[in-house]
Amino acid sequence: MPKDKKPAVSKGDDKVGLNPCFIPQSDIVTNLHSAVTKSECQRVVNALVERDLVTTKLYGKQAVYVVRQDTIDTATPAELAAVDKEMAQLQSTITEYKSKNRRLTSELSALNSALTTEQIMDKLDQLTAKNDQSKEHLAHLRAGTQLVSAEEKDKVVNEMTRHRKMWMERRRLFKDMFATVTENLPGKPKDLLEELDIEVQDPVDINVDPMDLLKA
Length: 216
Hints:
By secondary structure, the protein is mainly alpha-helical. It has helices spanning about 25-30, 40-50, 75-115, 115-145, 150-180, 190-195, 210-215, and strands at about 20-25, 55-60, 60-65. It has seven helices and three strands.
């Protein structure tokens, strides 16, 4: 007897799995993550075939199940147009809400970075107290009030005298050591000081006119 011919396969169906309507039984079990056994799956698929909801095709030894397209309700052109219109309206609404969300997010960020009413009141109290203190200090200065006590003044003078004495002692030690080091060196010691970027810091009389120092 001649062998049965395989059912004709359309051009788009020549490879099983490329068309989403063609479902092998093994794929059904796999996609269900083995929640059902192959036998259980076979019984359910056979029941769907008997109810004409699914048809079966044989590709070699493999049975492929095809969902019938003619049993699916299709929308009319008017219904499709209504769906497209609704989608356009929803897209417009989404765009509007996105713009509103960006604006509200910007306002919220500005509010979060701003001071609260309590913080503003505390800041105002601090500035008011500082302003009053400055006014009082200015009034004393205008009245010629002695703001520094004699004890504080003597303490500052003594501290300055001690530091000046220490500075002069260290300056004298440096000059002595520098003179010893440069005694037999060629050139002028002053040129070496400039080359090494060393300032001797000679004392200056604060009562001397600065213009006289520039003329010297």
